[in-house]
Structure formats: structure tokens, C-alpha cells
Amino acid sequence: MNHLTESQLSHLKTSLLERRETLQQHFTQDNESEGLLGDSLRMSTGELSSVDNHPGDVGTETFERSRDLAINDKLAQELEEIEAALQRMDEGTYGICIASKEEIPYERLEAIPYTAYTVEHTPARDLSDARPAEEDVMTTPPRGAGENRQEKSGRFDDAGAWESVEDYGSASSPVTSGSGDDEEGEL
Question: Which residue spans match zinc fingers labelled dksA C4-type (predicted)?
Fold first, then answer.
């Protein structure tokens, strides 16, 4: 820890303790709330049955619940890393990369106080390249599908709607007619 001054170390420890407190409060509040993420979907939504709900509503609830669980997992991992960083402070190894044994620059520690790695030795995150199973059986659309669809369908396309109705005028312009046979007051 010789590369960190006492004031830098104190500042970093304060940052870690504040973030730990925030995360602990998050998990305490989650456990005290009525709609716990550990409950079943039925219990967390307060619905007696999902039969009378639109499938989109159930899908939205499932998505929201999955998102909240993923956020909680990420925050729990951050809390573990903070605890490990505080332990490294107590042991005197804080600020030293656990992979290369190099000093971690203060600027990096200030940005991510719980990091245990230099930028060069940070483990790669395992991002899955897996694609949905449906893509294995999907075929590409026929050539030209959708090209000039509106133009050839003979249906009204709202992209040219203003050009079609501008001849009739607007609330702030006088009515004009191509025939000139209209009597005043008739529309």
C-alpha cells in the first residue's frame, strides 16, 4: 500500500463504507417490502389468478421480475467485492492487483474502489454468444418481401397524407376548391 497516501486510503475506505451501507439498506428494504422477489409471481403481483389477465400483462410482470432479480444479483456481487476490498485493506494488500501484483493506480481505485485488478489484468466478462433456438429454424424472407409494398398495394399510405388533404385547406386557411362551383357556406 505504499503507493497510496493515508488521505487517499481514508477517502477510498469512506467510499467503500458508504456504498456498502447503501447496498445493505437496499437489501434490507427489499426484504421488508410485501412483494418480495423470492415469492411466487402470483404473490408478488397480488393477483389470485393470472387466467383473467391478458398474456401481455403476465409477460410484462415476468420481465419486470426477471430484471429486478438480475439487478439484485449484480448488487449482491458488488457488495461481496466491497467486503473483499475492505478485507484487503485490513490485510494491507489493498491497491495491489491480485493477478499481476502491480500497483493499481489511484485514479482507477477512485473510480472503482472495490476493484482488485489493474485495467490490463481485469478478467473478461463472460458474455454469451448463444442465440435463441428459434433462429435455427427460421428462414430468410423471400427476395423483395416488403419492397414497395405500400406503393403497389393500392392502399392509402399516411406518409403522403398531407399532400392528399392539403387541397381541402386547414382550420386557419380558406377552403379552396378546384371546381369553383361551391357556394359560400357549403363545405
Answer: 97-121
From 75, 45, 48, 66, select the one nearest 57 (Cα to Cα).
45
Whether the CB-CB separation of 1 and 104 falls below 8 Å is answered with no
Selection from 7, 5, 18, 6 nearest residue 114 by Cα? 18
E strands present in 23-149: none
Q: Which residues does 114 contact at the CB level (< 8 Å), separation at least 6?
A: 16, 19, 78, 81, 82, 84, 85
Buried-exposed string 12-39: b where 16+ CB fall within 10 A, e elsewhere: beebbeebbeebeeeeeeeeeeeeeeee
> How does pLDDT run across 50-80, given as a tens digit for each residue?
566 666 777 778 888 888 889 999 999 999 9
Residue positions counted in the chain = 187
Q: Give the Cα separation of 80 and 112 in Å (integer).
A: 14
Q: What percent of the chain has pLDDT over 90?
A: 40
Q: Three-state DSSP class for 41? A: helix
pLDDT per residue as tens digits for the range 110-128: 999 999 999 999 988 777 7
